[in-house]
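Slide 14.
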Amino acid sequence: METCVFFFAPVPPLKISPVHTKKITLAVIDDHNLLRTQFCDLLDKLGYEVIIQAENGKDALKKFESIKQLPKVCLLDVSMPVMDGFETAAALSKKYPGLRILACSLNNDEDSVIGMIRSGARGYMVKTGTVPETKQAIDTISDSGYYFDRHAAKILLEYLRKDVSPQKSHR
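Slide 15: predicted structure.
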């Protein structure tokens, strides 16, 4: 029997300074309470201001109606009970067309990515991303209005190329 030994080097503290002078306001909608609260703490440390936390779409819609200023970006889980990400994105984008919805999910499949975009999301990222990738996603969707991580971008590209034949393409 072989013995395997792993050595882990100490990881230096993450130093990511906020790029924006004005804090980007966020809504975080996720049904996993521990994940949501820890994520919000991290976002606060990164210089963002979380003004709405909700455990599902129904809870989020109530909270959106009770605030005076809308968040700029909404981080939205896809799979939630009561009111899922698809229904929530559709309702929020209809009522608040300027809201930048960034779908965040463990689901990395065509139905989830395309479905969320059709429902009103302006971006998509998998939850397995790193802290710098998450920061990049929030900053990019805040600045440009859109963000797709490499997984979602590949799915979108493959989806768009599916039915393109030489006769249909615009050359």
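Speaker note: The chain has six helices and six strands.
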